[in-house]
Amino acid sequence: MGKITASEVNKLRKMSGAGIMDCKNALVESNGDFDLAIEILRKKGQKVAAKRAERDSSEGAVIAKVDSDCSNGVVISLNCETDFVAKNDGFISLANEFAELALQNNSLEEFLNSNIDSMTVSEKLIQQTGVIGEKLVIGSFEKLSAAYVGKYIHAGNKIATLCGFSNSVEGIEEIAKDVAMQAAAMNPIALDENGVDQTTIDKEIEIAKDQLRQEGKPEAMLDNIAKGKLKRFFKDNTLVNQAFIKDSKLSVATYVKSNNPDLKVTGFKRVALV
After folding, report:
1. 27 three-class SS
2. CATH of the domain at 138
3. Residues 78-92: tens digit of each pLDDT
4. Which of 113, 118, 135, 145 is 20 to 30 Å apart from 199, CA to CA?
């Protein structure tokens, strides 16, 4: 085959997302065969991925998406190695593309095996590892379904949340955004006290009792006082019981009911890069 043209290189770039020189070299090596060139780029990605397998991928972008009727949502994190890559427009665009696809899948395994650009998501991650030069992984995958699902992505794409509600009412968009922002800012461990696991409850009661003993409280009083401290723990750490960040006189549940007496928060998902 003759000289590789700029239009051929550009075509392969659009197909693969790889850099100009990588595409040109792959086309030269494949003698202009696009399918073979893509396979060459995949193998390069596999080599880079193998070399960087032990690297820490703690940076990245967290993206939340909700479907057109606002009844299903997903939040994923696309993780990379450095903040420099995480802020790149191309990387953020890739994270959004993955999140749109994730919305159509019910589990991380199903998502990783789904197709994107004539390959699986897992293969795309390896390919893009070769393109970008950093280890890329899907760090989190969370789905939420409800009568209404709202989302919030904090500036910088480091935290994203989904919140589900019992029904769709007038003004639900603003209510959902407020509650999703609450979940992002205050990092609740559960929706309400019923969602807190028994191990955590037992641990908090024991901590409270130890503190009371150190204060010299009688042993007979410990159980009742510890129960009071546990209520405070639930108030501080469960979403619907937390003080509403826009008006601390209200709990989140009270704020929601003040907009519509029949409206309830039914669930939430929160993903953050730590």
Report:
1. helix
2. 3.30.479.20
3. 999 999 999 999 999
4. 145
